[in-house]
Specification:
single chain; 78 residues; 3 helices
């Protein structure tokens, strides 16, 4: 299990929610975290690439959908 500490969207810094820092940043953080773990000399060889999963609620759910290929349409929002 890995859980990134999202800049601008964590318990110590809430300046990003509702901005592009959150909406565009979170999926990038997830991808970079997975890439870093896969490239890590100790952890990388232990990870089964066919069994990587992601779960999230609210902004995390949005990020999960984007990471797996979802294409948001902000024109449909309020």
């Amino acid at each position: 299990v890995a859980a990134p500490l999202h800049p601008y969207d964590n318990a110590g810094d809430r300046s990003g929610p509702g901005t592009d820092l959150q909406l565009l940043g979170r999926p990038r953080h997830i991808v970079r975290s997975i890439d870093a773990l896969l490239a890590h000399p100790t952890f990388g060889p232990l990870i089964d690439r066919a069994r990587i999963g992601i779960v999230g609620c609210s902004a995390g759910g949005f990020a999960a959908l984007v990471v797996i290929g979802g294409q948001p349409s902000f024109a449909l929002g309020p």
